[in-house]
Amino acid sequence: MASTALLALCSTGAFSGLAVEAGAGVCHATPIYAGHSWHQATFRLNVAGSTLSRYLRDLLVAANPDLLQHALPRKAITHLKKRSCYVSLDFEGDLRDTARHHPASFSMGNGCCVCLSSERFRCPEPIFQPGLLGQAGPGLPALAFRALQKMPETLRTRLADTVVLAGGSTLFPGFAERLDKELEAQCRRHGYAALRPHLVAKHGRGMAVWTGGSMVASLHSFQRRWITRAMYQECGSRLLYDVFN
């Protein structure tokens, strides 16, 4: 019913800004001004947490084909991704220099032990380079820049002052630093050097939408929007549109 981008902003106490969401199924860059989403300036990336989990599995099997003989449950792979993966601040450099890899071994809980090396930072990279998965189009930092670029000039600086990260896939170590670095580079490259985006990356941003929803629901102005069971039983589902429209 509610805009997840708006609720993400609300979790930080803001009603205007750019929400950059990276969850399980999809990534979005959504400008919000005075509580309203600008859909014509919203951009979507079809790479997110679930895609990265599948990609990690493919990387592990490519490095060690013997893993095909073992069950690699999706839940275990997702847990491994959250425990071990991080975003590189210099992907090409780290890829070339094996001395900059940080190998680590993990037990999968089924008697299978997995050793990760470059897979640790290669896993989240498609959010920044979707071409690694064969997808055309730019990564999330470029989409965030395009969202700001599409906004009226009078609003652009104000929205750039509050770039809120939200969703579980923004929790990789290094994610916020890489996004900040590349977003600033996009601004300079396209002639917006005066635009200085300020990232808001709170520790609880994996649950930012839920937190924002709970905050909105506790506002005094929201109280008239509650629907009781008796009201719903009397009017049915059309009541939702009467109340929220």
Automatic annotation (TrEMBL):
The gene is ACTL10. This is Actin like 10. Gene3D superfamilies: 3.30.420.40, Actin, Chain A, domain 4. Coiled coil: none annotated. Keywords: Signal. Residues 1-29 form the signal peptide. InterPro entries: Actin (IPR004000), ATPase_NBD (IPR043129). Pfam families: Actin (PF00022). The keyword Signal applies. The keyword Nucleus does not apply. Belongs to the actin family.
